[in-house]
Design a protein that fits this description.
With 193 residues, the chain is mainly alpha-helical. The chain has one domain. Helices cover 50% and strands 10% of the residues. It has a two-stranded antiparallel ribbon with strand order 1-2. Helix 1 packs antiparallel against helix 3.
Length: 193
């Protein structure tokens, strides 16, 4: 009963916050989309298949921060000074503005504001079968425990550890701490590639 209440309230918060932020930031999103398109050919949006609740696949939406067809030129994970990242993309990543369209994924119910970042299907190899099943027991989030502990600087093993810790220990208190720490980290532009 307690978990059901937690999930119901969490979903209500997800809807209220994501719809409000999308409305308030829509002029900025349009401006950024135009800047992306001016700098680099292709769609200003980046869609990628990710794994959601119970292993269901969905398309995550981000502002494109890399050159067109970047996934064909390297790993799903970016490196420091990755040459595939555009000039506007560096700004988007440092400020986390590239993540704003994911609020649409939150509204649709694919994601939550807080939870482990959604993995690509290829990242299943970073888990044991039991840990992968556990990881898929919660909705992925725009921000999570791994993001406040090191973002892109964490090893896959450390990221997996923090993601699974969140799944087992999720609560309003942990969600609030992650949310507040995320705002602090984003303001300082820490841990991004």
């Amino acid at each position: 009963m307690r978990r059901k209440c937690y999930l119901t309230v969490k979903r209500g918060i997800d809807i209220a916050v994501s719809s409000t932020v999308l409305i308030l930031f829509s002029p900025l999103l349009i401006t950024l989309a135009v800047l992306i398109r001016v700098e680099s050919s292709g769609s200003p949006l980046f869609l990628q298949l990710r794994v959601g609740l119970h292993g269901r696949l969905f398309s995550i939406i981000k502002l494109r921060s890399m050159i067109k067809n970047a996934s064909a030129l390297g790993s799903y994970q970016t490196q420091t000074n990755d040459p595939r990242i555009t000039r506007i993309g560096r700004l988007l990543r440092a400020s986390s503005l590239d993540e704003l369209p994911q609020l649409w994924n939150v509204l649709r119910g694919d994601m939550s504001l807080v939870g482990p970042r959604p993995d690509t299907p290829a990242q299943e190899c970073n888990y044991t079968p039991a840990d992968w099943h556990l990881r898929c027991e919660v909705k992925p989030g725009i921000t999570g425990l791994a993001q406040i502990k090191g973002r892109s600087q964490l090893s896959p093993l450390d990221r997996t550890h923090y993601d699974l810790y969140y799944v087992v220990n999720q609560s309003f208190g942990l969600d609030l701490r992650i949310f507040i720490d995320t705002i602090h980290i984003v303001c300082l532009s820490k841990g991004t590639n």
